[in-house]
């Protein structure tokens, strides 16, 4: 048996409509891990958030968090980390924005937000990970891997334009969902993080399977030897990845179904 690296986004890809791991997905990943394949959970979520999902899966998975700003191996050792410079974080925090757009930062240990946003909590109900409301007045030593603006797409579009105009050469700007505009240091994405894992494992990209649904997955899906997009993916993402195979929707356990067929588990 030749081991493969299986990297999957979480929300709207591996997780179901309730942002949870269903039984088929859990059992499939456990069996593949038992057979010697390497699992990587690659998400825009915070490391602690993903680690809680890994504990529920009960597998020794790699964790690529904050869209690749942090890479942890199955023993929780930091393999790679790239932070947003403090001065840039402060500039992002002070960027004018509509009152209903929430500014967030993911530090190494915490999720900070500028005001209460209870509508975000159901997304993290499975893990119990939650935000701390913060005035964002002291970010000089916050160790930020990712900053993000959460709001209506119509409110985020002008913010995105401003960010690209001012910082397009210095920062990596993407979306993980239509309402989540995310900012990392230049060169940080899921593909660069996955490359670090492959290097540590001495595995070629040809033995990588990757699954995703949104713009923050494009680089990873481009890198992978076998790329799969779920049917519910953003249409523009599907258009950008003509080499990728479109599979079923996330609420249909499409990742698990595809893996079971690929590795002949049934």
Structural summary, described in words:
- The protein is α/β, with parallel strands linked by helices and 266 residues long.
- It is 32% helix and 24% strand.
- The protein is globular.
- The two termini are 16 Å apart.
- The relative contact order is 0.18.
- The model has no long low-confidence stretch (mean pLDDT 96).
Secondary structure blueprint with pairings:
Blueprint: E1 5-8, H1 10-14, H2 23-34, E2 38-42, H3 47-57, E3 62-65, E4 70-72, E5 78-81, H4 86-94, E6 102-107, E7 111-113, E8 132-133, E9 144-150, H5 153-167, E10 171-177, E11 180-185, H6 190-201, E12 208-212, H7 218-223, E13 226-230, H8 235-240, E14 245-247, H9 254-262
Parallel strand pairs: 1-2, 1-12, 2-3, 7-8, 12-13, 13-14
Antiparallel strand pairs: 3-4, 4-5, 6-7, 6-9, 9-11, 10-11
Helix pairs in contact: 2-9
Short description:
32% of the residues lie in helices and 24% in strands. By secondary structure, it is of the alpha/beta class. The protein has an 8-stranded mixed beta sheet with strand order 5-4-3-2-1-12-13-14, with helices on both faces. A 6-stranded mixed beta sheet has the order 8-7-6-9-11-10, covered by helices on one side.
Instruction: Summarize the main sheet.
Output: 8 strands, mixed
Strand content: 15-25%
Distance between the amino and carboxyl termini: 16 Å
- The CATH homologous superfamily of the largest domain corresponds to HAD superfamily/HAD-like
Broad CATH class of the largest domain: Alpha Beta
The backbone outline, from C-alpha atoms, is globular
The CATH level-2 architecture of the largest domain is identified as 3-Layer(aba) Sandwich
Q: Helical content, roughly?
A: 25-40%
User: Cα-atom Rg, whole angstroms?
Assistant: 18 Å
Q: What's the domain count?
A: 2
Low-pLDDT runs of 5+ residues are none
What is the overall pLDDT average?
Answer: 96
> Strand-and-helix sequence, N→C?
EHHEHEEEHEEEEHEEHEHEHEH
The CATH topology of the largest domain comes to Rossmann fold
Q: Order of strands across the biggest sheet?
A: 5-4-3-2-1-12-13-14
Number of helices: 9
Number of strand elements: 14
Summing up helix and strand content along with how strands pair, one would put the structural category as alpha/beta
Oligomeric form:
single chain
């Amino acid at each position: 048996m030749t081991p493969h690296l299986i990297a999957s986004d979480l929300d709207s890809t591996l997780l179901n409509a309730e942002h949870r791991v269903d039984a088929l997905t859990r059992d499939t990943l456990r069996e593949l891990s038992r057979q010697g394949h390497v699992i990587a959970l690659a998400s825009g979520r915070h490391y602690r958030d993903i680690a809680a999902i890994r504990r529920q899966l009960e597998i020794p998975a790699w964790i690529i968090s904050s869209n690749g700003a942090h890479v942890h191996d199955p023993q929780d050792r930091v393999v790679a980390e790239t932070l947003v410079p403090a001065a840039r974080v402060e500039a992002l925090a002070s960027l004018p924005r509509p009152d209903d757009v929430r500014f967030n930062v993911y530090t190494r240990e915490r999720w900070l937000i500028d005001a209460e946003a209870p509508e975000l909590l159901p997304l993290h109900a499975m893990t119990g990970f939650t935000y701390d409301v913060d005035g964002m007045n002291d970010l000089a030593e916050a160790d930020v891997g990712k900053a993000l603006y959460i709001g209506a797409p119509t409110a985020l579009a002008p913010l995105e334009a401003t960010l690209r105009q001012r910082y397009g050469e210095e920062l990596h700007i993407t979306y993980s969902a239509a309402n989540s505009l995310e900012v990392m240091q230049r060169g940080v994405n899921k593909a660069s993080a996955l490359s670090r894992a492959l290097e540590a494992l001495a595995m070629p990209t040809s033995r990588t399977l990757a699954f995703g649904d949104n713009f923050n997955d494009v680089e990873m899906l481009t890198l992978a030897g076998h790329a799969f997009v779920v049917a519910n993916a953003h249409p523009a993402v599907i258009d950008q990845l003509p080499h990728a195979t479109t599979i079923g929707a996330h609420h249909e356990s499409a990742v698990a179904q595809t893996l079971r067929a690929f590795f002949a588990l049934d």
